[in-house]
Amino acid sequence: MDARLNYFANPTAGKALKYFMSAGKALKEAPLPAATQELVALRVSQINGCAACIDMHTKEAAAAGETAVRLNLVAAWREATVFTEAERAALAFAEEGTRVADAATGVGDEVWAHAAEHYDEDQLAALVILVSFMNAVNRLNIITRQPAGDYRPGQFH
């Protein structure tokens, strides 16, 4: 499968995405644990069906030491015993923040409160921005049919 648009070769896309992707880099420095960030990015991408992002975040997480068991169970995290309560709160938050069309209200009060039990205000801010950012990146990739499978960890760093 070939992409409809090469973001790196197109001057308009390149100019805009330079600023957009700097937000993603800033999130890497946020106080939200790196493992949680990768799990959330992966779950958002699974929900949206973004193969390119699933490829990227699975490989980045594995390269950072995440286990295959945990990565394989992200899609069924509710039934899995391998995630901490904090990670479960972040995954629930990611799902409600991604399925806004289904939930209509976005992240509900109960899910927000559960996340707030595990994350401070800076971490919650990072979680909100990460979920929003991943939804936008997923759409950029899905609309242009970016292919998956060839990503190498660290490729865009």
Main sheet, how many strands, which sense, barrel?
none
Q: How many separate helices? A: 8
- Given helix and strand content, the structural type is mainly alpha
Measure the end-to-end span. 24 Å
Low-confidence stretches: none
Mean pLDDT: 94
What does this structure look like?
This protein is 66% helix and 0% strand. By secondary structure, the chain is mostly helical. The protein has one domain: AhpD-like, CATH 1.20.1290.10. The chain starts with 10 loop residues before the first helix and ends in a 14-residue tail after the last helix. InterPro entries: AhpD-like, AhpD_core, CMD-like. One of its GO terms (molecular function) is peroxiredoxin activity. This is Alkylhydroperoxidase like protein.
